[in-house]
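TICKET #2291
ISSUE: user wants both folds in one file
ATTACHMENT 1:
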Amino acid sequence: MQYSIGVEYALHCLVYLIPSEATIGIKELAFFQGIPETYLSKVFTKLSRAGIVTSVPGVKGGFKLARTPDEISFWDVVEAVEGKKPAFQCQNIKDKGYLYRNNDCSDCSVSTGACSINLVMLEAEETMQNYLRSKKLSWLDEELDRVLPTQARLDTRAFFGKKQ
């Protein structure tokens, strides 16, 4: 399973929104990340629809967090950017096998000998989702303070503070 790079850009950009109530525009975020504004706009549209960020109109407008960093998990961001479709999509390939061609197994949510693979994959995905739900933006902000040079964090905040 692989998430798009949009998830990584979203998490980085959301961290930049943490230090203050000031809004940051897509133009500044895209420039700082070195990516096209149009691409980042699409990511932020998804984040906005999910209630993670809110758009502030006007000259000093842009985006700000719609919830506190303690209320936004990595999984919230993944689900907003990637959608709610499970990573493993049961295709009922057993139906093509000789023994099952005439059986109905359209419901892969119930444990049968033929659907055990799907149930294991769904359980594994749920475990991963729970782990990502336990990691919040506030944790990421603290972790970046711990692992990045202090000057890098100060320079980042200063870059986005120019707008204020």
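ATTACHMENT 2:
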Amino acid sequence: MAQTVYTSTSSGKQMLSEQVYAHLRDAIMRGNYAPGDALKPQDLAREQGVSLAVVREALVRVVGEGLADRLPNRGFVVPSFSDRRWQEIAEARRTIEPVVLRMSIERGDVDWEARVRAAHHRLARTPAYVPEEGEYYSSAWSEAHRVFHRTLLDGCGNPVLLETFDRMWTASELARRWSAHRRPDREHVGEHRRLEEAALTRDAHTAAEVLAKHLTLTAAGLTGCTYHEPAKGA
């Protein structure tokens, strides 16, 4: 009987932690917490009606996803715009993803072409913003966006490279939302259309250039920098 009670108690705590984690992750993604805001365990425990242990477990998961930091003497905080990690992730993506896209275009078959077209169609038809989800882009558009970029690369046939993409995508999700919020005039529809066109016409060089620019614009949205086209031949 004692074992049954322990298991039930442990399961209940895990369920509460999952609920708090989902709530906290959603709140950060929606922009309910500004960059640099503190995530106070005591306040969260009171708001959610759970114990500090449950909240701390959820916070550790959020930190693991790169959506929060645990700083000495400051506790848990939302990362800042100026955090160097965003530019480091952007640099890694600009280095790796255009290369993988070239491989995907060279190796992808007709089924890959069909998946790219379908993923782009879904992305183009999914509203980027919906009133009930606030000023940040919608969860449906976020998932359609991820699937489109993932599909562009999955023709490479290399699971290790695709796993690397998955990790970098998850790590940069918050930065993407902040960048889009700071640059609402960005023409992402055209950027994605050009990516699809270059991929499906098997123009690997153009596709790699368009993707590199696409990733650079996201990083520039966080720093406030203006993107300049590289000189021809550079």
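RESOLUTION: both attachments delivered.
EXTRA DETAIL ON ATTACHMENT 2: The two ends are 72 Å apart (CA to CA).
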